[in-house]
Design goal:
The chain is of the alpha+beta class. It has 35 helices and 13 strands. The protein is globular, with a radius of gyration of 33 Å. The chain starts with 7 loop residues before the first strand and ends in an 18-residue tail after the last helix.
Length: 958
């Protein structure tokens, strides 16, 4: 038979499902199959079936579209340049989306026309094409010792080096899927039955026996077919089974199918066992079981709803239920959809039932068990029904137990201990909007319900929070089991304790992590020696945990112990030595020793750049950490360059949705904000926030840090509504996760106080400043930059309320600390000089005020430059002092300089600008220029309320 001639062919760029790379491929369309090769005439790499597929509308990804040359196959994330189309093709019982890019619109349109024609030609073909095995997830290798986490003064930001490895092949078969997974029904079954909407998907809602409410018989929507069976909320549909029945069922299936049973999915059990058993009566399995006296005793109203994917092996689900019943819910009755649902009829339930009754039924049961498998790429996170069931559990506020099969727990803990990123990658993949269902109508119903209740953003955040809780619980349970196990080798026990410590530290449980490191250390010292590499690693990780708890002296001691061992074993210029220097730099920074911190951070970067096997992720971290230290020293241009290099590397190496990318975005926001480029800072912060919520969720300290930074920037810009919104989100995200005296709530409280102060709510502001001060004194002591900031800000409240002498006392305290920490020529020292000058002006001590303003101006010009809003504030306040001395010409000159900066940076409607307009109008009156005075007065009155920061007001916060 002659080979079919190509209908259309040419180069396109596609995403490799396993490698995560955008790759150039040569596509050949023949009939209803779209094959792709490495090059014309090369080996076929894969084939996209077009039968029962859909070619979606064309799309472009804004900002990434170029039309020059074919994409080279180098990694470019999130999308390559080009013009795209999408094919949704059948894949293992659920659709897979293929994203393809051409380099010109004309090429893309030609492919669209050819593909649509091929799909339309397949309309009369088999609507259930043979499924193809999905690709297996690839793992990422990790270094034993990673560079340190990075703390940022204004907000918590961590960073870590990542190593990414791509799988070498495409379309590797899914190890979880059995050979017969999702087979079509036989012809005989297809003629006599229709599987339920969930026979190839996760657990469905509770589908009831035939029972119709008489009062509702006549009610039918114009555009909706009345369901064949209406739901009932009681009776057989709500029955669960006990552990005895599950034991018997497992034994029965083992006898029926032999060794094959261990590989059979829930779908196969349904098709090959349940449906033939219930075929004659066309009923639910529960109908047969409860009528059999030997089984009826095992049924009762369900107390646990089981959410599981039908792609699992059925034995995995049953084993997980039995373990759950034995250790967590003795005597429970489990609602397992395969039993109460009629698998012969697809019940067309109305949307209202799914959005209301379904949740009530879950609430009545009181508990949901979600079976996770495989943990590296959990199927429930990709299936719409499982996510829907999780959403209903969260809405109903019932217990949600996320459980892993026992066989996978140790592998999970080992991987989590070695590299928390493997779990982070799992969390990154949680996007409810991308979930799939076997029936498109089911997916549409679920999405509609989500949009009308929680919404996708909130659902994603809550699911990630549940998964984090699940990870921690798995670690604790496993450690408890190990404590009770006696017949195990000492090194195996120590290694397991170490893994548990890593896992606990990865999720912020530092005290417990330190305890488990302490359990592991003696065995490693005894077996390997006191100067062994692994002993140094334990010192390092214990130091990281102590640093996170602000135990800086203990962290420094442990880092130095580890550094001594690493230098002796590997030499000065080794990546593991660099990691210890990085950790030391972070402690120096926390102790305000910025010269030592910068020296250590530069040492790290030099080692990373000279390493023959250069780790690009580690280089990005080194740029990031050095940049933040330089920022603190006021070397902003240098800091920006390092942070920009860190971002560029992260985007190439790990892509947009990764914690290290969020770190770079956030830190660029901090730098541009300090440079006075507030609109640009907001954009950087919003990028960082999107990534943080997607990877870590809303309830996380690092998410709160970015929310805090965003709010503070809006406050500076005078957008108080947005500032309040983001400050509230920051506080709420911290309430449930941090211990008393943790620094992050104090940061948020201090910034909220600054906003309340600008709104004239001084008593509330002072209460929050006092809370922050108590935290800093308890955790950091008197001689710390944070303590100085709070003294300064409390002084500005006293200044605003007329208590000028009290304000000066607090300013003097702040100045003493800042001179000791930062020195004379630092921006933050200048801020205190400014505020002291304002208080002196208010007391009529104008000459003294001008001396202090001169000191502030010299510092601001040297550190921030002549076009920064803080420099404008200094000119403005100097003008106020000259106005008090009746030096009208000099006052007008200084106010004009201030406006020349304020108008282009903050805009004419900012409170600071409006206040300066008002001052100019007064000075113009004194100079005998009523025309100019009227002009400035009109501009000043363009606001809806009086200026909140008149010309002589101090700069309240740093």
């Amino acid at each position: 038979m002659a080979e079919t001639a190509p209908v259309h062919e040419g180069y396109l760029t596609k995403l490799g499902f396993n490698s995560g790379k955008w790759q150039q491929r040569y596509f050949v369309l023949k009939g209803q199959a779209l094959a792709y090769l490495a090059k014309p005439g090369g080996t076929e790499k894969g084939c996209i079936p077009l039968s029962a597929s859909a070619v979606l509308n064309t799309f472009n990804y804004g900002g990434n579209i170029q039309a020059s040359g074919v994409a080279s196959g180098t990694r470019v994330k999130p999308f390559p340049p080009g013009h795209g189309l999408e094919i949704v093709a059948p894949f293992k019982g659920h659709p897979r989306a293929y994203y393809l890019f051409a380099t010109t619109k004309a090429e893309r349109d030609a492919w669209m026309a050819a593909l649509v024609a091929a799909v339309e030609a397949s309309a009369s073909a088999d609507p259930h094409p043979e499924a193809v095995a999905p690709a297996a997830a690839s793992a990422s290798p990790v270094n034993d010792l990673a560079p340190s986490e990075e703390d940022v003064q204004e907000a918590p930001v961590s960073s870590a080096a990542e190593n990414v490895a791509d799988a070498a092949m495409e379309n590797i078969p899914d190890e979880e899927a059995s050979a017969q997974d999702h087979k079509q029904l036989s012809e005989e079954q297809a003629e006599t039955s229709e599987p339920s909407p969930h026979d190839t998907d996760p657990a469905s809602g509770v589908v009831a026996d035939p029972a119709v409410d008489a009062d509702n018989d006549a009610v039918a929507s114009q555009n909706q077919t009345e369901p064949d069976e209406a739901p009932a909320e009681t009776g057989r549909a709500m029955l669960g089974v006990n552990a005895d029945f599950i034991h018997q069922l497992s034994a029965l299936l083992q006898k029926e199918f032999g060794d094959e049973y261990t590989k059979m999915t829930t779908t196969e059990i349904c098709v090959r066992y349940v449906m033939p058993l219930t075929k004659e009566r066309q009923c639910a399995w529960v109908d047969l079981l409860v009528e059999d006296p030997s089984h009826a005793q095992h049924f009762a109203p369900a107390t646990v709803f089981v959410s599981h994917a039908w792609k699992y092996t059925f034995q995995t689900t049953l084993d997980t239920i039995l373990h759950h019943e034995q250790f967590e819910a003795p005597g429970a009755y489990y609602w397992l959809d395969l039993i109460p649902n009629n698998q012969h009829k697809a019940v067309d339930l109305p949307y209202e039932w799914w959005s209301n009754t379904f949740q009530k039924n879950i609430k009545a049961m009181g508990r949901v068990l979600l079976v996770m498998s495989p943990w590296r790429d959990p199927i429930p996170m990709t299936r719409a029904w499982c996510l829907f069931e999780m959403m209903n559990a969260l809405n109903a506020k019932v217990i949600l137990d996320i459980r892993l099969h026992q066989s996978q727990i140790k592998d999970f803990l080992d991987a989590l201990g070695e590299d928390a990123d493997v779990v982070m990658d799992m969390l990154v993949r949680v996007h409810a909007q991308k979930a799939e269902a076997f029936k498109l109508s089911d997916r549409d119903m679920i999405f509609k319900t989500i949009e009308n209740t929680l919404g996708f953003t909130e659902l994603n955040a809550r699911i990630k929070d549940q998964l984090r809780g699940w990870c921690l619980e798995q670690a604790r349970v496993a450690a408890k089991d190990m404590d009770n196990t006696t017949d195990i080798e000492p090194m195996s026990r120590a290694a397991f304790f170490l893994s548990v410590g890593f896992a606990l530290a990865a999720f912020g449980e530092y005290d417990d992590a330190i305890a488990y490191y302490g359990k592991a250390l003696p065995t490693y010292v005894e077996e390997l020696g006191a100067d062994a590499d692994k002993v140094a690693d334990i010192y390092n990780h214990t130091g990281l945990a102590h640093k996170a708890l602000t135990h800086y002296d203990e962290a420094m001691r442990l880092y130095n112990d580890a550094l001594r061992i690493k230098v002796a074993l590997h030499g000065e210029d080794h990546p593991q030595t660099a990691a210890l220097y990085s950790n030391l730099a972070s402690v120096y920074e926390a102790l305000d020793d910025y010269a030592q911190a910068a020296h250590a951070a530069q040492r790290v970067l030099d080692i990373m750049l000279s390493d023959a096997n250069e780790d690009r992720g580690a280089v990005a971290v080194a740029h990031n950490n050095l940049g933040m230290i330089l920022k603190t020293q006021g070397r902003l241009d240098e800091a920006f360059q390092h942070m920009k290099q860190a971002l560029d590397i992260s985007l190439v190496e790990v892509g947009e949705l990764h914690p290290s990318t969020a770190t770079s975005y956030n830190n660029l926001g901090l730098i541009t904000s300090q440079q006075g480029k507030y609109a640009q800072a907001v954009e950087f912060y919003k990028h960082a926030l999107d990534v943080r919520v997607a990877t870590l969720g809303e309830q996380h300290a690092e998410t709160a840090g970015i929310l805090n930074n965003l709010a503070n920037t809006y406050k500076i810009m005078g957008n108080f509504g947005e500032a309040i919104k983001y400050f509230d989100r920051a506080r709420n995200s911290l309430k449930a996760i941090l211990e008393p005296n943790h620094p992050f709530p104090a940061i948020t409280a201090s910034n909220t106080a600054g906003l309340l102060q600008m709104l004239g709510r001084y008593d509330e502001a002072l209460d929050l400043y006092n809370f922050a001060l108590d935290t800093w004194l308890a955790t950091l002591g008197e001689e710390h930059a944070y303590t100085a900031t709070t003294y300064n800000n409390m002084g500005s409240v006293y200044d605003a309320t007329g208590r000028y002498e009290d304000a000066l006392d607090l300013y003097h305290k702040a100045l003493k600390i800042r001179l000791a920490v930062f020195g004379e020529h630092h921006h933050q020292t200048g801020v205190v000089y400014n505020n002291m000058a304002c208080a002196c002006s208010a007391l009529g001590r104008f000459d003294e005020a001008l001396e202090l303003y001169d000191k502030d101006l010299a510092i601001q010009l040297a550190t921030l430059g002549p076009e920064h809003p803080d420099t404008a504030t200094c000119y403005n306040n100097m003008g106020g002092a000259h106005k008090g001395l009746e030096n009208w010409d000099k006052a007008a000159e200084l106010f004009a300089k201030s406006l020349a900066i304020l108008e282009p940076t903050l805009g004419p409607q900012h409170p600071n600008t409006l206040g300066t307009y008002d001052s100019m109008s007064q000075v113009c009156e004194k100079l005998g220029d009523p025309e100019q005075a009227a002009l400035y007065r009109a501009r000043a009155q363009g606001q809806s309320s009086p200026p909140t920061n008149p010309p002589s007001a101090p700069a309240a916060s740093d």
